[in-house]
Amino acid sequence: MSDYKDRGIIKWAPFDALTGHTAVVEEMIFNINKRQKSVIFSDEYAEFDRVVNQAVNENEEISVDYFVNGYTYSTYGKIKKIDFNNKYLILDTNEAISFDSVMNIKLVK
User: Fold this and answer.
1) Quick check: helix, strand or coil at residue 57?
2) Of 9, 88, 91, 108, which is the most exposed, with the fewest CB atoms less than 10 Å away?
3) Which residues, listed in sequence order, are joined to residue 1 by a DSSP beta bridge?
4) What backbone phi and psi angles, to 5 degrees, belong to 54?
5) Could you give the CA distance from residue 83 to residue 99 in angstroms, rounded to a whole number?
6) CB atoms < 10 A from the CB of 7, how many?
7) Is residue 61 within 8 Å of residue 107, measured between CB atoms?
8) Would you say the C-alpha torsion 19, 20, 23, 26 has a positive or negative sign?
9) Residue 76, beta-bridge partner list
């Protein structure tokens, strides 16, 4: 017989110290890549208004770039509803985009 005695779970203990390591690294990368929202001028808001009115009146599809939590996202769709009370633009894809987060709106042709 052999005198080998398995250490069991003890041999894996050093790897257990890295349990939260991946989550911390991912959070650090997420925070490092965050950006500030660019300033939107009044003439750009007027252009957004014109595009939204045209899209609603002619039932056209729009492309929207919006800013959330340090990142810019893009989506597209037809405008389903404009919620003026809560300041949201609701697309037919059931995405609700805050007026304050909109960076750019274009008609999709």
Assistant:
1) helix
2) 9
3) none
4) -65, -40
5) 10
6) 8
7) yes
8) negative
9) 63
- In this predicted model, what pLDDT tens digit does every residue of 63-94 receive, in sequence order? 999 999 999 999 999 999 999 999 999 999 99
Structure tokens at 47: 């252009």
Sign of the CA dihedral with 94 first, then 98, 102, and 106 last:
positive
| Nearest CA among 66, 60, 58, 59 for reference residue 105 | 66
Torsion 41-42-44-45 (CA) sign: positive
How far apart, in Å, are the Cα atoms of 37 and each of 8, 44, 84? 53, 15, 22
Contact assessment for residue 64 and residue 89, using Cβ atoms and an 8 Å cutoff: yes
Check residue 7 and give its pLDDT: 66
Written as six digits, the tokens of 1 are 């017989």
d(C-alpha 88, C-alpha 79), whole Å: 11
The model carries a pTM of 0.72
One-letter identity of residue 19: T
pLDDT in tens, 9-62: 666 556 556 667 778 888 999 999 999 998 999 999 999 999 999 999 999 999
